[in-house]
């Protein structure tokens, strides 16, 4: 039996760069939000403090090497680095390109294009939602830019470490609906001209609901995506949730959670993270979630998942792995969200409470699946 291909999303934000200095103040990084987090209700696990790696700076190659070693220990195949491209302008690209150009760490990777406009309320300096929605940098598309973008990424696509699916470099698209069809056509054409065979495009379904999901999937496949990923965190809060479900959560927020609007128990929410109807399909790549807590960024307005622990996470992983076992080995892909999203409480790296607990849980679940 082949080993499932767990690919972890990787945030390269942990270093200062010019735009963050201009928008949020000198030296701002994700750690700025993490360290100021406070518990908002009884039993709320905050702040989340990194253990083995500390409050690292991704400009240091030693940190990137240690991350890769830990990911290998967990059984992760590679990192999917979040990539930010705005019509020729990259953001937080330094750790990625230093990794590509240096050849270190010798650990597989691919890119996930976070193709969305940055607005001030999404990254408010004090973690609260802003009054306005000032645009910081806008995501735009053009056929001319498609060619320049592909040319920029070509050295990465040709790197021997780049993750392939069906012999093609895999590219994850965060906002599948927003990506123009011409980007897929042009990149596939250019990739074939470069001897790469094309690009394996994976599209994330934006804000799925019970009512629109099948239509959304068809739309993305028709656009040219090879495979899709369906996000399911906080599914009760989508427009498809029942009135009574939303009312129940509103009452709990007042009585138990000090007015925090969106709090769910990990153990209860696990039922939403797997759907056999979809996740067993050959070209649907499911997602595993160690935890989630957006309060460092958005305070009481953020989605907060409580009660996660390594054992529950292992149970969750085992259930998800069961959905991919019958697929072709190349397609036994499971995305891990995420390796190091500390500001979202969504990480695998060791912390002061659980140490390497989540790393060991994933490793054990993978070994037991073989």
The SSE string, one letter per element, is EHHHEEHEEEHEEHEHEHEHHEHEHEEEH
The number of domains: 1
CATH topology: TIM Barrel
Radius of gyration: 20 Å
Largest β-sheet summary: 10 strands, mixed
Per DSSP, the total helix count is 13
Distance between the termini: 6 Å
CATH superfamily: Glycosidases
Shape assignment: globular
Architecture per CATH nomenclature, i.e. the level-2 architecture = Alpha-Beta Barrel
Low-confidence blocks of residues: 122-129
Percentage of residues in helical conformation: 25-40%
How is this structure best summarized?
The chain is of the alpha/beta class. The chain has helices at residues 18-24, 30-36, 61-74, 94-102, 143-157, 181-193, 213-223, 243-255, 266-269, 276-279, 295-298, 310-322, 357-369; strands at residues 5-10, 78-86, 89-91, 109-113, 118-119, 135-137, 164-165, 168-173, 200-204, 227-229, 262-265, 287-288, 303-306, 333-336, 340-341, 346-347. The longest helix has 15 residues, at 143-157.
What does this structure look like?
With 370 residues, this protein is an alpha/beta fold. It has one domain: TIM Barrel (Alpha-Beta Barrel), CATH 3.20.20. Helix content is 34%, strand content 17%. The chain contains 13 helices and 16 strands. The protein has helices at 18-24, 30-36, 61-74, 94-102, 143-157, 181-193, 213-223, 243-255, 266-269, 276-279, 295-298, 310-322, 357-369; strands at residues 5-10, 78-86, 89-91, 109-113, 118-119, 135-137, 164-165, 168-173, 200-204, 227-229, 262-265, 287-288, 303-306, 333-336, 340-341, 346-347. The strands form 4 sheets. Strands 1, 2, 3, 4, 7, 8, 9, 10, 12 and 14 form a 10-stranded mixed β-sheet that branches. A two-stranded antiparallel sheet has the order 5-6. Helix 5 (143-157) crosses helix 6 and helix 12 runs parallel beside helix 13. The longest helix has 15 residues, at 143-157. The N and C termini lie close together (6 Å).
């Amino acid at each position: 039996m082949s080993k499932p291909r767990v690919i972890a999303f990787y945030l390269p934000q942990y270093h200062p760069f010019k735009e963050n200095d201009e928008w949020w103040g000198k030296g701002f990084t994700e750690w700025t939000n993490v360290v100021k987090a406070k518990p908002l209700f009884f039993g709320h696990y905050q702040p989340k403090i990194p253990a083995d790696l500390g409050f690292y700076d991704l400009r240091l190659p030693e940190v990137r090497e240690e991350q890769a070693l830990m990911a290998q220990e967990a059984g992760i195949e590679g990192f999917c680095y979040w990539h930010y491209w705005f019509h020729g302008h990259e953001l937080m690209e330094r750790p990625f390109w230093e990794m590509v150009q240096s050849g270190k760490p010798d650990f597989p990777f691919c890119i996930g294009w976070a193709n969305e406009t940055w607005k001030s309320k999404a990254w408010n300096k004090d973690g609260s939602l802003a009054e306005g929605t000032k645009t910081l940098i806008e995501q735009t598309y053009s056929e001319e830019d498609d060619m320049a973008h592909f040319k920029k990424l070509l050295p990465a696509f040709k790197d021997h470490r780049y993750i392939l699916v069906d012999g093609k470099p895999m590219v994850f698209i965060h906002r599948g609906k927003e990506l123009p069809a011409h980007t897929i056509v042009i990149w596939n054409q250019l990739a074939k001209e470069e001897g790469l065979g094309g690009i394996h495009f994976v599209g994330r379904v934006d804000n799925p609901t019970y009512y629109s999901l099948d239509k959304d999937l068809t739309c993305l496949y028709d656009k040219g995506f090879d495979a899709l990923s369906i996000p399911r965190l906080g599914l009760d809060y989508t427009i498809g949730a029942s009135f009574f479900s939303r009312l129940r959560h509103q009452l709990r927020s007042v009585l138990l959670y000090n007015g925090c609007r969106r709090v769910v128990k990990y153990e209860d929410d696990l039922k939403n993270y797997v759907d056999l109807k979809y996740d067993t399909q050959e070209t649907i790549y499911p997602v595993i979630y160690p935890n989630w807590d957006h309060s460092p960024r958005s305070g009481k307005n953020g989605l907060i998942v409580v009660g996660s622990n390594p054992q529950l996470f292992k149970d969750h992983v085992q259930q998800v792995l069961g959905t991919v076992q019958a697929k072709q080995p190349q397609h036994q892909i499971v995305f891990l969200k995420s390796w190091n999203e500390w500001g979202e409480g969504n990480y695998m790296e060791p912390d002061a409470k659980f140490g390497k607990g989540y790393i060991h849980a994933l490793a054990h679940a993978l070994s037991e699946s073989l």
